[in-house]
Write a sequence for this structure.
């Protein structure tokens, strides 16, 4: 069999390589301080706005406690960086969408690295209960939507799908979960939408608190879009081993907690707690080929919290026990 490889050479402006295309990645470049009262949507940050529903922005300078940080109407969370973050509401079949106008349109055919961080607002942590629903399929889609839309017909989940998304249900309320990937644009998209963009039939939700309202709220921070840069967008200058604790998977199987995807082999310590902070189990383990198993004598059903400590790195992640 003879295989023919077609090589396409793209001539692109040199200034595109490695350029950050988000005007304010951490929502910190404010056009105005977030004075209340009333809802504050992301347009207070340069380049940001809304594409569906009424997503929000939160900042330490806001005099309205509902939109302050770290404590606000939906939860308690320190920003991943700076002193501002945004947020969007979800429930089965519905997602608010945050919109960003890029500094310049994407160059078709040139890879785009995307990275952003989300944190689930914890039930009973905010001034008002944000609900207890966690979801997967949180992602971004590049678009030609270049103006704000409030409560548009697209407020129920769109059937667009996303260009970058996570298949994991994001349940962590203690820290920030990183979602990242690479996209090859087929058009000169000028904007980006962020939220849950898949049709309901493709979305998985988990009620992390059975007593809470079946809805959820996610904080968003550190959103980066870099075209032609290569490497990690969220952690520039760090190699894969240095970012290992941000990229491992946790699964529960017949009394065993299985950790995979860690690239730093060697000893590690762990701490298992419930969502009320009670210690369930702690101990030591050894990573081999990025994998280890922890035998658990007993584990209550529901959402539990795992803390992994290796060298000077520490990460908190939540997992679900059926």
């Amino acid at each position: 069999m003879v295989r023919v490889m077609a090589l396409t050479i793209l001539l692109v402006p040199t200034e595109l390589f490695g350029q950050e295309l988000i005007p304010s990645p951490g929502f910190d470049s404010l056009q105005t301080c977030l004075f209340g009262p009333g809802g504050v949507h992301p347009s207070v940050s340069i380049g940001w706005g809304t594409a569906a529903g009424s997503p929000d922005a939160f900042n330490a300078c806001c005099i309205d406690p509902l939109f302050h940080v770290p404590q606000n109407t939906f939860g308690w969370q320190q920003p991943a960086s700076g002193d501002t973050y945004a947020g969007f509401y979800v429930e089965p079949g519905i997602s608010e969408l945050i919109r960003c106008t890029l500094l310049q349109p994407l160059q078709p055919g040139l890879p785009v690295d995307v990275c952003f961080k989300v944190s689930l607002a914890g039930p009973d942590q905010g001034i008002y209960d944000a609900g207890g629903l966690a979801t997967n399929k949180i992602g971004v889609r590049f678009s030609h939507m270049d103006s704000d839309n409030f409560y548009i017909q697209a407020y129920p989940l769109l059937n667009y799908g996303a260009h970058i998304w996570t298949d994991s249900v994001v349940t962590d309320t203690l820290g920030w979960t990183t979602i990242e990937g690479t996209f090859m644009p087929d058009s000169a998209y000028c904007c980006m939408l962020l939220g849950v963009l898949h049709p309901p039939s493709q979305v998985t939700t988990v009620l992390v608190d059975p007593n809470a309202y079946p809805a959820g709220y996610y904080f968003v921070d550190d959103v980066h879009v870099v075209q032609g840069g290569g490497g990690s967008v969220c952690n520039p200058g760090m190699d894969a081993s240095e970012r290992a604790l941000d990229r491992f998977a946790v699964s529960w199987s017949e009394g065993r907690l299985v950790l995979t995807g860690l690239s730093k082999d060697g000893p590690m310590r762990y701490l298992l707690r419930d969502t009320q902070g009670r210690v369930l189990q702690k101990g030591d383990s050894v990573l081999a080929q990025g994998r280890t198993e922890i035998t658990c004598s007993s584990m209550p059903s529901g959402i539990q919290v795992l803390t992994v400590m290796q060298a000077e790195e520490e990460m908190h992640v939540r997992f679900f026990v059926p």
Remarks:
- Confidence is low (pLDDT under 50) at residues 1-17, 150-156, 236-247.
- The two ends are 50 Å apart (CA to CA).
- The domain at 244-321 is CATH 2.60.40.3080 (Immunoglobulin-like).
- DSSP finds no helices and 21 strands in the chain.
